[in-house]
Amino acid sequence: MLSPQQLIGCLLHHQFLIPKITSLQSLDLTKLFQEEHDRLNQALDGTDHSWTALTLKLCTSLETANKLVQSTNSNVRLLSEKVEGLEKIIKRGDSAVAAAKAIHVSLNQKGGPFNGSQNV
């Protein structure tokens, strides 16, 4: 059972650490998880009851990792949509360039006003 101080500590940890961690994009989640896991194992090997708070910290780390993965997935979806839009624009541009080249070649073959020997 958690003491009142431990419970308050866990609540503060959950309320204030998760938003802080979530805002850090370069966080090494594996390292964070391993550190909490190691602390939990040390507490379980000992005789005190700090393992309860450490278990909560470990769960918090996993929840944070899950939130970051969900956020990353959302960002990847948005980025993918933007890339698709850019690909469509590039294809339209390529088509316009190809059409302009075809017109230029056609006019040059006919000796039109825009043939290669004249400056515009």
Described by its quaternary structure, the protein is single chain
Principal-axes shape call:
rod-shaped
Assess the beta-strand content as a share of residues.
under 5%
Could you tell me how far the N terminus lies from the C terminus, measured between alpha carbons in angstroms?
88 Å
Low-confidence runs of at least 5 consecutive residues: 4-8, 15-19
Mean pLDDT metric: 74
- Record field, number of beta strands: 0
Can you characterise this structure?
With 120 residues, the chain is an all-alpha fold. The protein has a domain at 4-82. It is 81% helix and 0% strand. The chain is built from 3 helices and no strands. Helix 1 (4-23) runs parallel beside helix 3 and helix 2 packs antiparallel against helix 3 (51-110). The longest helix is centred in the last third of the chain and has 60 residues, at 51-110. The chain is rod-shaped. The protein starts with a helix and ends in a 10-residue tail after the last helix.
Quick rundown:
The chain is mostly helical and 120 residues long. The chain has helices at residues 4-23, 29-45, 51-110.
What order do the helices and strands come in, and which of them pair?
Elements: H1 4-23, H2 29-45, H3 51-110
Helix pairs in contact: 1-3, 2-3
What labels would you give this structure?
120 residues, mainly alpha
